[in-house]
Structures are given as structure tokens and as C-alpha cells.
Amino acid sequence: MNAVSKSAFSVALTQELVRNLANWYGSDNWDSDRFGPHRESFKDWVITKLNQLFSGRAAIIRRRDFDRLILNASKVQDSFEGLSSLYGLLEDEYSKSMLVKVIAYRIMGYRKVKLPLNDRSYWSKREFARSLIKSRDTIKIEFHNWVLGHFGLDELGYPIELYFLPSGIMVTFILRQYEYGKRIPEIKAQSGDYVIDVGGCWGDTALYFAHTVGAQGKVYTFEFVPDNLQILQRNVNLNPQLAKRIEVVPKALWDKSGEEIAYSASGPGTSLNNNQQGYLQVITLSIDDFVREKKLPRVNYIKMDIEGAELRALQGAEGTIRTFRPKLAISAYHKEDDLVVIPNFLDKLGVGYEFFLDHFTIYQEETVLFAYPVG
Fold first, then answer.
1. In this structure, how many other beta carbons lie within 10 angstroms of the beta carbon of residue 38?
2. Given pLDDT bands bounded at 50, 70 and 90, which one contains residue 114?
3. Contact (CB, 8 A) for 315 and 337
4. Average pLDDT over residues 325-340
5. Domains of the chain, earliest start first
């Protein structure tokens, strides 16, 4: 690891932590759509009022919060060298700054750190997303007792309708989570591209990519959870023109094909666990085997959001990555070390990627690592 990168990351992170020490946020830094209403005990309320009184000068913190901060800091310390290496790999200052802010949030939490998206514009966009309801029809799911509304996205420039959440509309179609627009050329799917969409869930990204790649493109979306597949297929069927460009593959991607892996169905939070017994079972498939079996002429873009299985799925795509050098948008927040092991694996392939990082919520989830092939 470059000693300069380690020092630069250490200085930047220390400065960010110090800058946030006296903060104390409450409901203004909380996403109730994701976590439910913001609630405080009487003691919490008193502490909040005292912190508001001393805002910018000092902060009062409970012992349990301090202990949690120390625990989080120790976890980051365990990954410090790897995070420093990623800091050195990132190509632009925006990505480096975002990495530092995300790590600071991991350590200090929502009481101390506001992530960059949290401004008036963000909440205005969320309200606009709510306004895009097309009908009163809904789908209720067991996961967090969420209710999916029936949305129409013409006002956003997408001739798409689907059952989804306002926060999901915000992330996928307004913030465009799987595009990196802070470099030229942008990292995004383009007209005519073949896209592998890993983690199709309810079909939002399949539809987003199908619109983006146009009539000459193709989207292969992977989802294996029966309840998710039912909603995914319903959403795809709502969009017959885009459906022609989408192939739903009901398989779980892994580093090897043909393994029987356990999982526990949990809506969009479903994850594979090859160390568990007694849960539901699914047979795995690797991207390399899929590409070979389908005889795909090209793979231009790979997106992954599969609840911690990203590294294993990437390992099963090594041949595809070496052959086609696709652009990548990989979720890197499900496991503590994702921001270390995923870029390290991709960099060591030696195929010539530049790396970028962005974050698409006001809380810890939805950090995306982008890779762009150069040379």
C-alpha cells in the first residue's frame, strides 16, 4: 500500500471526525420511510435539547453511545489499511471525499454525521416521487409491512409504470443510483448495451436498464426469491415494450454453478448463506457459465446489489470481466469489509479499471463502487 495514500486517508478521516464532534442531529437526519418514525425517550429528548443549546460548541453523549462509537471505530481500524488502499485507488476528489464521509457516518452514526444528500432538495425530490402515483392499486409485502404503490414515471422522462416505494423511485430513477455522472464519459448503460442486472428484486432496475439500452440492447436480470419474482414479473408485464428487452433469470449468482445454498426469504433483504442449514435452498449459477451457455456476443455493463454476495458473484464473473471489460456498478455496503475486498479483487485482475465511489441515501445503505475500463 502507498504510504502517501495511508497518510492522506488518515488525515482526511481525522478531520472529518473532528468536524462532526459537536453535532447532534435528530429527526432531521432520519429516514422514516426506511426505519419508521423517529422516536426518543424522555432522556434522549433532554439530551437532544441540551445538545441543541450547545450546538457547534460541545456535545453531550450517553455512555452507551460512546461505547458504540468506540466499537464502530475499532471495526474501521481493522479495515484501515484496505480503506486507505481504496482511497488511493479512487480517481477523483469527489469519490475520496465520499469515502471519508461514509466511513465517518459508520463510526459516528446519524446523531453526528449528515451525509451530503441530506438537504432541502433531497426531501423535495422525495415528495415529488410520492406524487407520481398512477392509481390507488397497491401490493402489500411482508418485509417491514411495506406497501408498494402503483407509480407512473412519465414526468421523470421514463415511459415506465411499476409497483414500488417512493424511496425506491427516488434512488433508482431520480438519483440514478447505477450511474456515475461526475466524470466524462459518464459511467452508465448506453444504447445497444447488454446488461447483467444482478439482484432484480421487484424489477425497477431491469426496467430502468431496458429503457436506457433501447431496442438494440438486452437486459438479463437475476432474481430467485419467489415472492420477489412474482412482483418483478408483474412490473415487467406492465411495460410490454420494455419487456421485449428483458430476460428474467430465476437463479442465484455465485462463484460456482450447481451449488445448493441456503437462504431465508426476506424481500429485498434476502441473502445467501452457505453456512446455514434448514432454510430454503437454491441452486447457484456463475456469470461466466451463464455467458458461455447463452453465447452472449458482449457484456457491456454489470450491476450488482445482492446483500453481501457481490464478491462471490464477481469471482464467478472473472472470465467475463477479462473478456469484455464491462463497466461495473457494485453495491459495497452489505458487509463490513466490502469496501476493501471488492475493489481489491477487481484491481488485482489487472484489466485496467478506474474506480469511483458514490452514495445514494442519507443513511448507511446504498454505497456503490463504479469501475470504468480504460486503455
1. 13
2. very high
3. no
4. 96
5. 3-108 (no CATH), 128-331 (3.40.50.150)
